[in-house]
Amino acid sequence: MSDEIEIDLDDLKRRMDGAMSALKTEFASLRTGRASASMLEPIMVDAYGQMTPVNQVGTVNVPEPRMVTLNVWDKSMVGKVEKAIRESGLGINPQLNGTIIMLPIPELNEERRRELTKVAAQYAEHARVAVRNLRRDGMDQIKKAKAAGMSEDEQKLWSEEIQDLTNSYIGKVDKALESKQEEIMQV
């Protein structure tokens, strides 16, 4: 057994934790009836030639429980920000008032709740894909180690470790999705 060849499971675990963290952030953006500044976090706008989070082109406020406002700093960006919000899939109709974009949050009806659960499922699928990509990276490390002289027994052991880690994180994603969907469907 060679001690030199080691697969970095801690790095894979850290990166899978990052995928879970990103999923939790995306889930926080899905509203469940109340306005929240975090609901705008995943929205990206084309600002000055690069994609920028919408909360970096203006000030986000929640003046009342069913209203979010975004005070855009650069007047020339208002149209792009409004378009990004419309195309985000949040189902919010922005209203312009100069450089302030008002986002009234409608009551959630049954149909809208179902749409939001589908959006949550899409976010979860992106997280699963990210975890699987990290699994592939780990398997690639094993292939490189094989070329460096890793035994078949060690390869099998590491492959099983990486697969177990992947299964554990896919399970966490599924559990988080189930919890979020229950929260959304709650009246």
Automatic annotation (TrEMBL):
GO terms assigned for molecular function: ribosomal large subunit binding
CDD domains attached to this UniProt entry: RRF
Ribosome recycling factor domain boundaries: 23-185
Matching Pfam families: RRF (PF01765)
Subcellular location, record wording: Cytoplasm
Gene3D superfamilies (UniProt xref): 3.30.1360.40, Ribosome-recycling factor
Gene Ontology cellular component list: cytosol
SUPFAM superfamilies the record matches: Ribosome recycling factor, RRF (SSF55194)
Signal peptide: none
Keywords: Cytoplasm, Protein biosynthesis
A biological process term (GO) from this entry: cytoplasmic translational termination
Record-linked InterPro entries: Ribosome_recyc_fac, Ribosome_recyc_fac_dom, RRF_sf
Coiled-coil features, chain-numbered ranges: none
Similarity field: Belongs to the RRF family.
Role according to the record: Responsible for the release of ribosomes from messenger RNA at the termination of protein biosynthesis. May increase the efficiency of translation by recycling ribosomes from one round of translation to another.
Record-given protein name: Ribosome-recycling factor
Organism expressing this protein natively: Roseinatronobacter thiooxidans
Gene name tied to this protein: frr
